[in-house]
Amino acid sequence: MKTEVYLVVLGMAAVTYLTRFPPLWLGGRVNFPPRLKRGLSFIPIGAFAGMIVPPVLLHQGVHRFNLYLPAAAAALSIAWFTKKPFWAMLAGVATLAALRGVVGS
Predict the structure, then answer these.
(1) Of the candidates 91, 68, 65, 69, the residue with the CA atom closest to the CA atom of residue 78
(2) Contact 49, 76 (CB under 8 A)
(3) At what angle do helices 68-82 and 85-103 cross, to 10 degrees?
């Protein structure tokens, strides 16, 4: 590979390290206000929603039918009844895999 590629990879690693290390290092040493702690607790669900909602609601696949919609419905129903994220994700992935097996990918 060219030297430029290595420099870009090293630069990206440095930027990633420098933006993620200070909060982890300060996390145990700084006492955050309760309101900030509560706000930060919503970041994981916001990121998860940002990854899940577009494929489910904005269907642009090769199939006429949106395969993500029944998979999301299965995951939501399992999550509603079991309150266990693992089983909900497993149900969604299994439903999507079964639909792709029937319809084809």
Answers:
(1) 91
(2) no
(3) 150
